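Deviations from the work plan: none for this task. Representative record:
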Amino acid sequence: MNPFNYHSPDSLAAAQSAKGGDVKYLAGGQSLVATMKLRLSAPTDLVDLAGIAELRGIKADGNALVIGAMTTHAEVAASAEVGKRLPALAALAGGIGDRQVRNRGTIGGSVANNDPAADYPAAVLGLGATVVTSKRRIAADAYFIGLYETVLEPREIITAVSFPVPAKAAYEKFRNPASRFALVGVFVAQTAGGPRVAVTGAGGAGVFRVAEMEAALAKKWAPESVRGIAVDSSDLNSDIHASAEYRAHLVAVLAARAVAAAG
Amino acid sequence: MGISVSMTVNGQAVTAQVDPRTLLVAFLRETLGLTGTHVGCDTAACGACTVLLDGKAVKSCNLLAVQARGAKVTTIEGLAPADGLHPMQAAFKRHHGLQCGFCTPGMVLSAVELASRGTVPSEAQIREALDGNLCRCTGYQNIVKAVQDGLAGMGGAK
């Protein structure tokens, strides 16, 4: 790991104005520390968000669940509030990585990192959530740009993610048993604005929606509506774990399972 | 260019000046000399480096020592009473829940955390819960038996 200066501010304002050149914000560190060890990331200044109390916690806000950025996956999975109002999200959080990773990894870190095989981006896009930052509120459809890339600007810090509670939702994931990341994961939801289908793990540019499946589900919410819909494999990833064609097949299979699971 | 780090390790307050890039596992092993915590993969996959941080199982190779400032850390050295073994260690011994033993400190600490959940996990739940701890020797049969027995042994202790 390359050397860096460590900062541990106790307020959002202090975190934003932390001194330093190439500043990176540290949440749970389950991706960032690993990439720093590999020197894929080498910030001059590391700003630890762990001491900022306002970034933690889960609260209801009308018809939305607002989850603080520093809330861990284990906390979301175990939350009675999330389990009752948005069980698909609790289940998704409980399936991220492994138990030790869930004890440290955070929703804000995951959504900021935007790993193309991470689980949370599928929920954020699939539920039409709002990413709340130190500067603004960003709709999910405008937030994700590409691999590890989002519209977040330097020194812009995610403070929370606001999930509108859907009529029903489910997430189905085909897990890579070694990395525990999604080989393919599909989040489906019946939202106030209609059905949404978001796919992680497969897209060459990260998480994406499947308009054709959403239109079919709008006509009839049933597994058979999506089972036969093929996504174009030319836009999907091929690697040692799975070919693009296999991933395309999984998208339809998992979408159908998710619709069935959502009921 | 050091930074002062204070935490409680196995019930003892410790303070040291460390380079901010020091990993928690390096702090435990090299600064404190607690070599019971093992480095297996060094990529946060295998779980050999698992310790308890404020009671929660974490991978100490994927955490900076500065992230544990003010926390209570428990390593394998801190589990046993002076005159014997912790119930989970005794169960691993009784069921021979190991072969080479390299993964065992992480396995034991990960298993101990399960006891804090308050419910008795099924065999399937134990296997799922040990997802973050890899053993390349045993095939897990005796590890799962040991964890079941160890959790039962910890029942009264909470």
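Chain B has a mean pLDDT of 94.
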